[in-house]
Amino acid sequence: MKTGLAAALIFAPSLAGAAEIEFASKIDRVTVYPDGAVVTRLGKAALLQGASQIVLRGLPASVDPASIRVEAQGDGAFAIGAVDVRQVPGDARPALDQVLESKIRALQGEKAKLTGEISAIEAKRATIENFGKVGPDRLGEGGKVLPVSDWPAVFDAIGTALVKVQGELLGLRNRISDLDAEIGALEKARPLAPRASQPKRDVAIAVEAKAPVAADISVSYRVAGASWLPVYEARLTTGNTNGGAEIAFTRRAELRQRTGEDWSEVAVELSTTRSAQGTRAPELNPLRIAFYEPPVVYEERARLQRQDSERAARPPALAIAPAPTTGAGFGNTVSLEDRAAPQEASVATSQISAGAYQASFKVPGRVSIPQDGSSKAVVLTQGKIKPELSARATPELEEKAYLEASFNHDDEAPLLAGEVYLHRDGAYIGKGRLGQVAPGDKVELGFGADDRLKVTRVPVRRRENDSGWLGSTRTDQREFKTVVKSLHAQPVKLTVIERVPFSENSAITVELLSQSTPPTEKQVGDKRGVSAWSFELAPGAQKEIRLAYRIKYPGDREVVFDQTRR
């Protein structure tokens, strides 16, 4: 009959002079976090009568000694005492994962190329802006005055060119932001690869038994150099006129490890907890405000205050506290818990366990994860979702409408931020990015351009007075017309996004004119000046949206348009 560890704490084993017992173990299960892993090793040991120590050799250098936990049971009474962690020289191994490094270099090269394109487009924008500053009196042939009838065409050409340049810059900067996220994720997955002569760690566990014992021992510890990233796949079937749209949504995980250990045929559990981040919110110190005082005055005042303090001070009584003593307790003793028996996976997806503050996924079966940092993909969840389809257009930047699908995330586990691969009616559309989504939140995914929605946007008029009198007011009035026509055989929900400049200076006023089509949403989210028009288009129908506004500002000042980012 086996005796549990908790009932056998009657010895005080010590490491000094104790016989060493080699502990042959194998990694049985791994809990992988986005920024590390907890590894559990199982093994058997034949304990000698009296004091001895079980030695587990060759653990990675990145093992956190404070995280080591030991559980054991045997066919006789024994006790576990101190756990000693030693550094020993390690074998020379390759320092870099060439596949991972090549991918990082390729992404960095793409980023450098895009940065160069941005510089070139910014130079183009500066040239257009400089051209716009040339007065009409010098735009004609030979530097002569340009006919008044040609002025609107020049203004429209400059405005159209600037809008196109801004759109190109926005697209490139968004792509650089995506590249930064990818590079950052890969850099976090960089292994803590042992280099030549980098030490490893041996763990010595003190034990003592009244008689020889056959023991089953479990050792767990946290190690760096491991991570997992979420990857999603959304396959949209748009259905027919009866509204049979459906999304096959798959949640996967890409696992990587360069811990230096052999993770072959191990049970894997993935956790959403970030174990390497802080455990409490940062402390905020009080902020005192006072009038500025010149240094000489301040130093004199401080000197007088020190003198007053010295006169009032009295020698404090000294109290000597007894030195703390330590007992012979066993800090690493833990109670025995029966290990759950292995279960056969009934489906190819993971079992979700969601708590109030975290979620975990038990990967079915056993998995082998190579230690060279290459990716291992596993399926976590898979299901069918009934989405709501709509279209969205931003005609100022692009005269196209894009299909969107939205749905509520009803799973008990959150969706962590990650890439999502998008398919529409069997065709691969592209790769997007999904932000972190809590249970119950709304998910919005884009599924490419809708070629059955025709979008046009044209400037109707622009009127600007250019008075040079001191104290006079300058005005700039603009009006645009957007037309959306549906070529679908069924009704389509559509949202058109437009913007009006806003001012934070009371001397600059922006007025929305009466000929504008009233928006259904005056402000989209926290974006000031950005409005939305939502409506439903019948088959073959079209919708016209007019936007007109007037800007007023002092005649002796110039204004600039600055795009704020949200």
Tell me the domain tally: 4
What is the number of strand segments? 27
Name the helix and strand elements from N-terminus to C-terminus, one letter apiece. EEEEEEEHHEEEEEHEEEEEEEEEEEEEEE
Number of helical stretches of at least 4 residues: 3
For the terminal residues, how far apart are their CA atoms?
67 Å
The computed structural class is alpha+beta
Oligomeric status: single chain
Fold and architecture overview:
The protein has 566 residues and is α+β, with helices and mostly antiparallel strands. The chain has 4 domains: 3-94 and 195-224, no CATH class; 98-189, Orthogonal Bundle (Helix Hairpins), CATH 1.10.287; 227-275 and 345-391 and 407-438, no CATH class; 452-566, Immunoglobulin-like, CATH 2.60.40. The protein has 3 helices and 27 strands. Strands 1, 3, 4, 6, 9, 12, 13, 14 and 15 form a 9-stranded mixed β-sheet that branches. A 5-stranded mixed β-sheet has the order 16-11-10-19-20. A 5-stranded mixed β-sheet has the order 21-18-17-24-26, with no helix packed on it. It is elongated and about 105 Å long.
